[in-house]
Amino acid sequence: MxxxxxxxxxxxxxxxxxxxxxxxxDVKKFGDSRGYFMESYQKQNFFDGGITVDFVxxxxxxxxxxxxxxxxxxxxxxxxxxxxxxxGKVFDVAVDLRKDSTTFxxxxxxxxxxxxxxxxxxxxxxxxxxxxxxxxxTFAYKCDDFYHPNDEGGLIYNDPDIGIEWPALDTxxxxxxxxxxLSDKDRIxxxxxxxxxxxx
Length: 200
Fold this sequence. Notes:
Helix content is 9%, strand content 40%. It is mostly beta strands.
């Protein structure tokens, strides 16, 4: 995420990742002893940075440490998402589900926190998930299509073919699946192999 792959527009720096279309957004903050101010979105700057979608819905969630949400996607109404953390810290992941992509089945992950103010843009036709690394986290995201409750898809978070390297929840410790908190629905998400078999 260095050099020519970076685009600066206004108070934002847009950095390409190893997966085409997935962009990390760094935000400039202005502060003093009273507090701070920052822009979190400015349409023209984002268009300059390659994020040219029209967002139609904002969502927010609160989770405790160890909660892992994902990997989620909408099947017939895919959404682009711009995600960020208002409070706490998470590890956020995008998995490429574009059948004709050279990075189909590959993942990109980034730490999002209230300290780094970083945002993560995930295009349509990606699976998305995150794991909470702090005691609590407030997570917010924009979508360019509405949520359709009967259109949900999912992949199991620890699929061996995708191979996401989830970080440890505790300092100097390895990732411990016994500490992960999953919803009943996420616990039975299909494998990437099963997903691919349905595409065939």
